[in-house]
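Please fill in the sequence for the structure shown.

STRUCTURE ENCODING:
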């Protein structure tokens, strides 16, 4: 059945936005190598990550799809979700926190070490999210679609549609922030 079709396509579409953002952040890291630290870009990038990539996208996964998997699919889901996807979400949050800390340090004293750590944490985030999205698209989502009982898939689909409706009010802000980031 296609019960999770909308849910999975929506999450994959968000991955495409996040991956476009990652490409842009990588370009801004390359600019640092040529002497230009676009502090405003990185501030907006942190906002995009916290508000949308983590605050909306990861939240939907964690609250809806991953919860259903953990509640219904036993040890394999435990390993894939709790030992993999949720750990990677936490790692991403750590990279963003360190990116912000080093951006603050750079603004205080334009230190080369802070520049290095801006690049390091931004690129660690980029590479993590690229690999993470691929794992979810190619392994985690198909596993959920194949393995969850039909009644659980129906509940996941209903919850997802409801959450997306709630998020609609922030879509214009998201679009504006993405445009300001050059995405």
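FILLED IN BY: designer on duty
SEQUENCE:
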């Amino acid at each position: 059945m296609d019960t999770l079709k909308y849910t999975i396509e929506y999450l994959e579409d968000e991955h495409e936005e996040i991956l476009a953002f990652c490409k842009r952040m990588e370009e801004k890291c390359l600019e640092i190598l040529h002497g230009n630290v676009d502090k405003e870009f990185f501030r907006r990038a942190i906002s995009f990550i916290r508000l949308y990539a983590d605050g909306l996208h990861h939240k939907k996964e964690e609250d809806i799809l991953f919860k259903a998997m953990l509640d219904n699919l036993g040890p394999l889901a435990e390993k894939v979700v709790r030992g993999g996807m949720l750990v990677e979400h936490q790692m991403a949050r750590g990279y963003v926190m360190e990116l912000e800390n080093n951006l603050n340090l750079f603004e205080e004293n334009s230190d080369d070490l802070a520049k290095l750590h801006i690049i390091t944490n931004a690129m660690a985030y980029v590479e993590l999210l690229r690999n993470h999205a691929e794992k979810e698209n190619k392994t985690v989502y198909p596993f959920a679609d194949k393995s969850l009982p039909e009644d659980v898939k129906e509940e996941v689909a209903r919850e997802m549609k409801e959450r997306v409706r709630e998020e609609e009010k922030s879509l214009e802000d998201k679009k504006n922030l993405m445009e300001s980031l050059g995405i």
